[in-house]
Amino acid sequence: MSRERLYLFDTTLRDGAQTNGVDFTLADKLAIARMLDDLGIDYVEAGYPGANPIDTAFFAERRPLRGRLTAFGMTRRPGRSASNDPGLAALLEAAADAICFVAKSWDYHVRVALETTEEENLASIRDSVRAAKARGREVLLDCEHFFDGYKTKPAFALACAKAAYDEGARWVVLCDTNGGTLPHEIERIVAEVCTAIPGDHVGIHAHNDTEQAVANSFAAVRAGARQIQGTLNGLGERCGNANLVSIIPTLKLKRDYSDQFEIGVSDAALSRLVRVSHGLDELLNRAADRHAPYVGESAFATKAGIHASAIVKEPATYEHVAPELVGNKRKLLVSDQAGRSNVLAELDRIGLAVDKDDPRIARLLDEVKEREAVGYAYEAADASFDLLARRLLGQVPHYFDVEEFDVNVEHRVNAKGERVTVSQAVVKLKVGDEKLISVAEGIGPVNALDLALRKDLGKYQSFITGLELTDYRVRILNAGTQAVTRVLIESADETGDRWTTVGVSANIIDASFQALMDSIVYKLVKSGAPA
Ligand SMILES: [Zn+2]
C-alpha cells in the first residue's frame, strides 16, 4: 500500500526563539538549522528577515539545506501596495526557498489590532502571496488565531485561508495561536476546512497552552491536514509549540500513523533523536527534561523489582517502543546490569574493542558513576568519556605534565585612561625531559589559560596546530554553598571533527583547565601522537 506524504515544518528558530530566556546567536541558528536538516525536516523556518539583525544576516546569503529554508514575515500592511511595503520587500529579498506569511483570520483582530476592513485583509493576503510567487518562492500562509476566528465567524476565517490557496499558496496553515483549542474542536474544524481546501494543502500550527499541542497536531492530521508545524523540545513562547521530538517518533513508530504516512525522517535519523534533543538543550545551556517522552533520560527507566526483572527477560513487557529506535537507552535503576550494557554500548560506539567480561568494564562503570555523582556529564562529553575509558584500558600515552599554572585577572586604568580588565596565564609544562614555560594574554582568564596551554607543547606542538575551541558552556550545579561548576568545552580540528570535554570543580578555572586538558589530550590521541 502506498503511503501518503506528511510534511514537517520546524519553527524552532522563529516561534521557538520567542521562548523566555532563549536568545539564539547567528552561529546557534546555523547549527540548529543543520541539525534540523540532518534530521530530515522538510521546512526549516529560520526567522523573520528585516525584524532583527541576526535574522537579516541569516537570510543575507544562501544557506545550503536539503530541506526548504523558509523566511517568515507579515503580509503587506493595510493601505499600502505590495511594492511599497519595506517589510514585505525585506522578506522577498531574503535568500529563502519558501516564504511563510502570517495574516489575521479572526475578524475581531482585523478590526481591533489591524484597524482595517475584512476586505482589505483579504486583499493583503492575495497581494502578498502573488508577490512572493512572482519572485519564485513557495508560499505558505499562517492563519493567525484561525480556530478562535472560525468559532466566531467561520465564513471570514475560511475566506482568509481560501484567498491564499486560490492565489497559489502551497500551504494554508491553521494556527491555534492562543493555544486554547481542544483536540475534538481541532478535528471538527480542520475536517470542515478540508472540504473547501484539499487536505494536502492544509497545515496545523498548535500551541501547548492546554498541554495538548501534540494531540491537536494529530487531531488535525486525522481530519485531513498534511503538514505539521512544531519545534524541537516544544520550545516556544508561554507553554511552547507542538513538540516535534514527540511527534516524529509517534509518526514513525505507531502503526496507525506509520502504515498511512511517510515523513522525511529516516530510521537512521530517528535513532539520533535523543542526540538532537539533548544537543539543543546543551546549546541553550539548559538541563534536559528527564521525563520527556521518548528522549528523556527516564523515558525508559524502570526501578528495580518485578518490572526490572521482567524487562530483562522481555523488554516489550514494560516498553511501548524499543528505546534504541530513538537513540535512547533502557535504564534499570539500582542495577549494575543496565549501566554495564550502556558502557559496553558506548565503548562499541567509540570503537574500543573490549571483551564484555573484562573486569576493567566494572571499574570503568564505577568510575563513571562516581564522577557523574559529583557533576561530570559524560553523555554530553563524548571525548572525556573516550579518554576515561582509554586511560583505564592503558591506551593513553603519558604525553606531558602541567607542573604549575597561574591565572591572573587585573582590572586597571590603561595609558589612555580607560578602565580595562586584562587576563594573563602562565603555564609550566614538562614534556619528556624538557621544561617549558608559556605566557599568554587573553580576553578572559579561561581564554588566557587556553592560549598559554597550547602555545608550546614541545615535540607535540605540530599535532595540535589545527585544534580550536569552538564553544564554552558553564553550568552551576547544586546551587547554594555546595555549588560546583561544570564546564563543557567543544573543540574542532582541521578535519572538521568536533568533540566535547567536561571539567567539574568548585573553581571555574580549575573546571575549565580539566576540560581544556582533556581536549588537548584527546586531540593528541586522535592524531596518533607517539608517546
Ligand atoms: Zn505560533
Descriptive report:
This protein is of the alpha/beta class and 531 residues long. It is built from 19 helices and 18 strands. The chain has an eight-stranded parallel β-barrel with strand order 2-3-4-5-6-7-8-9, surrounded by seven helices. Strands 13-14-15 form a three-stranded antiparallel β-sheet, covered by helices on one side. A three-stranded antiparallel β-sheet has the order 16-17-18. The chain is globular. The chain starts with a strand and ends in a 5-residue tail after the last helix. The structure holds zinc ion. Zinc ion binds next to loops. Zinc ion binds at residues 15, 177, 205, 207, 241.
Keywords:
18 strands; eight-stranded parallel barrel; three-stranded antiparallel β-sheet; alpha/beta; 531 residues
Average pLDDT level? 92
Number of helical segments with 4 or more residues? 19
Low-confidence stretches: none
The set of bound ligands, ions and cofactors reads: zinc ion
The amount of helix comes to 25-40%
Biggest pleated sheet? 8 strands, parallel, barrel
What's the count of strands? 18
The end-to-end distance, rounded to whole angstroms, is 60 Å
How big is the Rg?
A: 27 Å
Shape: globular
Structural class: alpha/beta
Strand content: 15-25%
Strand order of the largest sheet: 2-3-4-5-6-7-8-9
In terms of topology, how is this protein built?
Layout: E1 4-5, E2 7-10, H1 26-39, E3 43-47, H2 53-58, E4 68-74, H3 86-93, E5 98-104, H4 107-112, H5 118-134, E6 138-144, H6 146-152, H7 154-166, E7 171-176, H8 183-196, E8 202-206, H9 213-222, E9 227-230, H10 244-253, H11 255-258, E10 261-262, H12 267-270, H13 273-283, E11 301-302, H14 306-313, E12 331-332, H15 336-349, H16 359-373, H17 382-392, E13 401-413, E14 419-431, E15 434-442, H18 445-455, E16 468-477, E17 484-492, E18 498-505, H19 508-526
Parallel strand pairs: 1-10, 2-3, 2-9, 3-4, 4-5, 5-6, 6-7, 7-8, 8-9, 11-12
Antiparallel strand pairs: 13-14, 14-15, 16-17, 17-18
Helix pairs in contact: 1-13, 5-7, 6-7, 8-9, 15-16, 16-17, 17-19, 18-19
